[in-house]
Amino acid sequence: MKNRVFTTGEAAAICAVSADTVARWVDSGQLQGYRLGPGGDRRIPYDALKTFMHARGIPLDRLERETVCILVVDDDPYYLDIIPAVLTQQNPYTVLTASTGFDAGLMVVEHNPQAVILDIHLSDIDGRVVSERIKGRPATAATRILGISGFIDDTEIAELAQYGFDDFLKKPFQIEELRERVVQLLQRPLSGAVEKASR
Fold first, then answer.
1. How many CB atoms neighbour CB 140 within 10 A?
2. Does residue 195 lie in a domain region?
3. Euclidean distance between CA atoms 138 and 181, whole angstroms
4. 193 lies in a domain?
5. Please, what is the average pLDDT of the chain?
6. Is the pLDDT of residue 147 over 80?
7. Is the pLDDT of residue 199 over 80?
8. What's the whole-model pTM score?
């Protein structure tokens, strides 16, 4: 948790203020943070946010409550919209999204998610390469990866484990099945075995 880095929206939810307020805190130097490049999005490290909250008398319970961070990577806006909505409906997950493999790489380094829902056929890079890179980092070697795709055959599905995928779900999928798969994935030990969507 202490290596977490928060967006202004996440910090706003923790402090019970608006994202604009957090942005002003960062820009005025009251809250230590940084931008992702010139004019880029603001990011606030865990330690900086905790120090700020303690100094301001803001309760730390929301910050210190352990939450599961899930990254959704897909170049289809529909899935980037529906998957976070489904996952957070019944569980207190922090769900982040990325539409390209490049953005996914940045998010993985910043947030070290416990699970990644990864489209195998991204517009800029093959999802199998992204999966290998995630599992190749010591900080995310234990991250569970659920592959999703509508354009893949049984032979390719059977080969996903060698790229680091822990499970696979074929598009289009039922919302309830996605929710159940994620729960199961987070609970079970790392097996390295991909299960077919037809199980």
1. 21
2. no
3. 24
4. no
5. 86
6. yes
7. no
8. 0.66
